[in-house]
User: What shape does this take?
Amino acid sequence: MKAFLTFTCSLALLCLAVVSVTIAADVPQLINVQGKLTDAVGDPVADGPYSVLFSIYDVVTGGTDLWHETRTVTVSDGLFSISLGVSTTIPPSLFDNTDLWLGIKVESDDEMTPRQRLTTAPYAFRVAGSSVGGGWVDDGAVVRLETNTDRVGIGTASPSARLHVVESNGTAVQAFSNGGTGAAAGLYAYSDTWHAVLGINSNSNAAVMGRNDGTGPGVKGQNQSTGPAITGYASTGNLLELYTTPGPNLKLSVNNSGDLQTTGTIESTSGGFKFPDGTVQTTAAVYGGPIAYGVISSDGTVSSATANVSCTWNGTSNRYEITISGENYLLSSYVTVVTPTATGGAVRIAITDSVSGKLLVYLYDTSGTKVQDDFHFVTYKP
Assistant: This one.
């Protein structure tokens, strides 16, 4: 070995500068080091190439290096500049450590002292190792992904959405808001093309569950446009099931056919109930005593009846026409029960109708032919 290459531990690294490190994915992850080598009396070493071992430690003295790389540096007037990480990759995980120190050993000399502490710029490697696509950008007040096609995966190396979280042992995402002095959602979702929130479950638990430990509803639907506040779909099960707790106890259900079943009382506070024929009933039907009744002979004469009953036989239409005084008889507004006398044991079928305020009674035999026969009738008005 040449004498001028004999160095002692007193050789000083008078200047060690670490320049900025770019975290973009297409830029090499390197640490740029500049320094000056001098001999024991402070004079620059001779110009030329030197073999130098660079090592990174997590302690200022002693210990085992976490990374090292042997490089040939070219010195001019004692000065050199080199990029570390070219031959041996510097792993981003190395910068999980908060304190790192750079050691330098020239040729066969001992490692120089003291080691040089690595400061801010190299720690950008940690950010670089965490980035996907364009990587993370810190704007000061906002940390964001640089490219709008970037995805973040937590628990997965292949995220299928902008944020994809996989958790096998507990809650995947937990959102909490104490509200402060105003309304603040624990979790806010918005979409102008499809569902803002989609729940899918492959087991017997709920796809979406709402729970409130206060006084509000467990699930609330609100629509400020034209669609429904809450919509439910079911391929085979019930469309709706409502339970009370503890239990749970089923109190109301709506099946796929639209049938409603409840253990409680169905109440209409206004509007009433609408039936398939379009009629709306706002009060319950209450039947008192009959408003008219009587026995009608086959020729249409009244055999016996209340005083408000009169009857004629219409031979043209083959029907009995009964007038109830003081009543404008309409089939849908009255209830009439007709019992044929069935002279001689013959079977008769009675059908009622109305026209011009009169009760009409038709009698048929078993062949469907209109016939004359005695009958009894009773009429009620709800």
Helices lie at 124-130. DSSP finds one helix and 24 strands in the chain. The two ends are 124 Å apart (CA to CA).
